[in-house]
Design goal:
It is a single chain. The chain has helices at about 1-25, 45-60, 75-80, 95-100, 140-150, 165-175, 190-195, 205-215, 240, 265-275, 280-285, 300-320, and strands at about 30-35, 65, 90-95, 115-130, 155-160, 180-185, 205, 220-225, 250-260, 290-295. The chain has about 325 residues and is an alpha/beta fold. The longest helix is centred in the N-terminal third of the chain and has 25 residues, at about 1-25. The protein starts with a helix and ends in a 5-residue tail after the last helix.
């Protein structure tokens, strides 16, 4: 009798173990909902839309993109966290939602490391230090020197308290030992326009947000926060080589799934992302957004998220950064 029960039990386990694989074989069998907890038109929104359009061609099902902005991404992310873990609801997140916002808002309705499974780090949004077009600053070193000479008198803009623009400059100021004044605006674009309008002396911004202002001669790009100079901004040095050694900053365009999504489905989605990023038309559309294509898989993406989660927790705590 015991041997029969054992045999039946083993058979049931084998069947259960085969369910995810079978699901991946037929996945997706219906349209996939992609929730973006950010405003339409943001760099991450644009990137995710471009990539999932190509993924729909590969997977044979449409991706229905739904923007649910509000509370710095908390509302839309909550929809993903509470969705069925079957691969039919995904999230198109920036890294702020996963690594910054959880340390700023009390009583979080979800945990970024427990309630989401990483699928793919699609691309990094590259950043730069910008100043008004007629600013006397020519380099990041000029800005640092002025800020050190005038503690508490130099202003910088951001997209709001706890926004990536705020975090980037807080990280920069901490590393450089600066006392500068944060002026929050309601969104990245108003923060960039504030630099162009000389309401502030500088700001860190995603290059996709300020590319038009740079090309139009409204703001000056002092330095990029990448490890190497960027071909699309020839002659512009890195922060690392022109003012603050060892400073790097970027933000992420990612795809995540509700926790518990079968790994074969996660892997299938990641493979489709990689295939999409290899397409010439996708590369051509993403390049002007100031992005570097990545296609980093679930395990490495997860490790990077955990690392930045700890980094920003300490920074936000030390700087007493709070929500608006």
């Amino acid at each position: 009798m015991k041997s029969i029960i054992a045999s039946v039990g083993m058979a049931l386990l084998a069947c259960a173990g085969s369910v995810p694989a079978q699901a991946a074989d037929t996945y997706p069998a219906r349209p996939v909902r992609m929730v973006i907890p950010l405003a339409a038109g943001s760099a991450v929104d644009k990137a995710v839309r471009i990539v999932v359009q190509k993924m729909s061609e590969d997977l044979g099902q449409p991706f229905v993109v739904e923007n649910i902005p509000g509370s710095s991404g908390l509302i839309g992310a909550d929809k993903v966290a509470k969705a069925a873990p079957d691969g039919y609801t995904l999230g198109g997140f920036n890294d702020s939602i996963l690594t910054m916002i959880p340390h700023i808002y009390p009583n979080m309705p979800w945990h970024p490391l427990k309630d989401f499974d990483p699928v793919s780090l699609v691309a990094t949004v590259e950043w730069g230090l910008v100043a008004p077009a007629d600013s006397p600053y020519k380099t990041a070193a000029d800005f640092i020197a002025d800020a050190r000479a005038n503690p508490g008198r130099i202003n910088y803009s951001s997209g709001g308290n706890g926004s990536p623009q705020h975090i980037a400059m807080a990280l920069f100021a901490k590393k450089a030992g600066l006392d500068i004044v944060h002026v929050p605006y309601k969104g990245a674009t108003p923060g960039a326009v504030a630099v162009a309008g000389k309401e502030v002396q500088a700001g860190f911004q995603g290059l996709g947000t300020v590319a038009g202002l740079i090309q139009g001669g409204k703001v000056k790009l002092l330095a990029v926060s990448t490890k190497e100079p960027l071909a699309q901004f020839p002659g512009v040095p890195t922060v690392d080589t022109s003012g603050l050694s060892g400073f790097f900053f970027d933000s992420w365009a990612t795809i995540v799934a509700p926790h518990g999504t079968p790994r074969p489905i996660v892997d299938r989605l990641h493979q489709s992302v990689v295939k999409a990023l290899a397409a010439a038309d996708v590369k051509a559309q993403l390049a002007p957004l100031g992005m570097t294509l990545r296609g980093i898989g679930p395990d490495e993406f997860g490790a990077a998220t955990r690392g930045n989660f700890d980094l920003y927790r300490q920074l936000i705590h030390d700087g007493n950064i709070q929500s608006n």
